[in-house]
Amino acid sequence: MEITLVEGDITTQRVDAIVNAANSSLLGGGGVDGAIHRRGGPAILEECRALRASRYGKGLPTGQAVATTAGKLPARWVIHTVGPVWSATEDRSALLRDCYANSLRVADELGAATVAFPLVSAGIYGWPVEDAVRQALGVLGAATPARVTEARLVLFGAETLRVAERVRAG
């Protein structure tokens, strides 16, 4: 699987699946989550509400992943995952890694060949960017999916891309 780093807006990525850094309610929010819901339109929210009414009555647990339609986005699916909130006193990195691993597993089950990931938890959830990149690349680099051929890490801003390139170079 090829891992690419790109600066840009995840909602414009032409891929099979876009990963959403969702909140546990699955009902939209700020940051990446809000942008995906706004750009994708009401079909995403409709499916998220159905998931809440059935399998996820208490919300999607942190680190887990579930797919919906992509609505008006240039993708077939949105894979929603809930990242952990950064804590200086508790190591939650396993939950962050689970977000990538479970999203990749769902993408593979869907038959997606290309998947665009945001930098999960690095926005409003406060995860330090350098470590967030390290966690993402660690999981994606070790993965051996059957169907996914490209995992694209879509980074918001030139500085975030520079950090990611530096982390990847070692």
TrEMBL record:
Domain Macro: 1-170
A Pfam family it matches: Macro
InterPro entries to which the protein is assigned, alphabetical: Macro_dom (IPR002589), Macro_dom-like (IPR043472)
Membrane-traversing stretches: none
Protein name: O-acetyl-ADP-ribose deacetylase (Regulator of RNase III), contains Macro domain
Organism: Micromonospora krabiensis
Lineage summary: Bacteria, Bacillati, Actinomycetota, Actinomycetes, Micromonosporales
